[in-house]
Amino acid sequence: MSSGHTPAKTASGQRSRRAFDRDQALAAALREFWTHGYETTSIASLTKAMGIKPPSLYAAFGDKRQLFDEAVQLYTRTHGARLREGSDARSAVAALLRYLAADYTDPSHPPGCLIITGATNCAPGSQDVKDKLRAMREETKASIAARIRADVDAGLLLADTDTDGLAAFYAAVIQGMNQQACDGATRETLERVADAAMAAWPEAPSRAGSAAPSSRFPASPVHPADRTERQEA
User: Fold this and answer.
1) Which of 26, 44, 180, 41 has its CA nearest to residue 118?
2) What is the end-to-end Cα distance of the chain in Å, rounded?
3) Displacement of CA 1 from its chain's centroid (Å)
4) How many angstroms separate the CA atoms of 170 and 216, rounded?
5) Model pTM score
6) Cα dist. 161→62, 168, 172 in Å?
7) pLDDT, average across residues 153-164
8) Quick count: other Cβ atoms within 10 Å of Cβ 49?
9) Is the separation of the CB atoms in 83 and 92 below 8 Å?
10) What's the mean pLDDT in 58-84?
11) Any alpha helices (H) in the chain, and if so which ranges?
């Protein structure tokens, strides 16, 4: 008879330990990390926001570091953006900046970007967190550079276009838009920043003129106005 009751007790125990919605708890943890950053977010503040006790956090998510990893994964699924497929590099970058202008200032969640701000003040013991987010930012920059190189190869940009420098420039624009959003900038302000940044896009070969010197960061764009499109990772 004892063997017949044991599973029921075990199942009951599992239910009592997991008497909360894991997805909702993870969303609450994401908001805490997004608002305060990894280092200054404590287990106490996490459990309070998630509505659970520390033993439940450890049982469901492991430790704080593992919980942060899951929060980052959730962030990339729900707020992450990638370059639009099937378009030239300029259109893709312009659409990305427009999306970020809207998302960074969306009042339904903390301002800015977790991948940029989540590890700005980490102690040496949390260097792996800082390295992880830096690698994600570098991946975004590399994807921009790759798209620009593809346009150079396709003849859409001049052969001497500084692809890495241009990608680093737009990565810096993205990071600046993040800080502006955290400082209270509106969506309209960030869209103006995006428009100004796109004015630095290099000239297309057909508009450069064979005898004119090339310019990597000209004063005005040469492509039509951009169409925006939200992309989720």
Assistant:
1) 41
2) 52
3) 55
4) 13
5) 0.79
6) 47, 13, 18
7) 95
8) 18
9) yes
10) 95
11) 2-17, 22-36, 43-50, 54-61, 64-78, 89-104, 114-117, 127-153, 163-182, 187-198, 205-208
